[in-house]
Amino acid sequence: xxxxxxIRRAPTMLRSALRDLRYxxxxxxxxxxRFEHLGAFHSTNSPYEALDVLFAGVDVGPDDVVIDxxxxxxxxxxWLLDRYPRNRIYGIExxxxxxxxxxxxxxxxxxxxxxxxxxxxxxxxxxxVFYLFNPFDATVMTRFAEALLRRPPGAxxxxxxxxxKYLEPFRNDPRFSLxxxxxxxxxxxxAVVTLD
Length: 196
What we know:
The chain is an alpha/beta fold. It has one domain: 3-Layer(aba) Sandwich (Rossmann fold), CATH 3.40.50.150. The protein has a seven-stranded mixed beta sheet with strand order 3-2-1-4-5-7-6. The protein is globular and about 45 Å long. It starts with a helix and ends with a strand. The relative contact order is 0.15. The mean pLDDT is 94.
């Protein structure tokens, strides 16, 4: 990282590290994936400020079960615990080492479950709200959309997608409703997708 970029980002990085400490330790930095051959991308933290904006228009009720798909080190799980402390929350992470560390760090939170493996095969049946920070490529995103469509009918499913690079599986199927977010505070293309 360039020095000028580091200086510009220092206040945000410090605020994020302090918020991370409430849940164990600072989570800064990217972990390179060992699973690129499976369509996975590097493990990168969601900015707390972006999560505030992304979820501002999403109705999350007390009975909703929130799933962080590709949870990595769990910064989004921290944010979800702050925002929805009584909801059931799941994190799904492909990398077993990262998954184990995140599960260990959040083990004292009874409403949080962190599971390891392929998110397209591990979607909890009770899941209603899904958060994704571009965890995988277009092929896996298609499998993820198909896995959601195979869920038993019931409650509406909402997908909050940050750095939304692969919207085609949702755009190409009329069962999904797609709304791209236009907010200058978001540094990446973002969308909210619903499935009734």
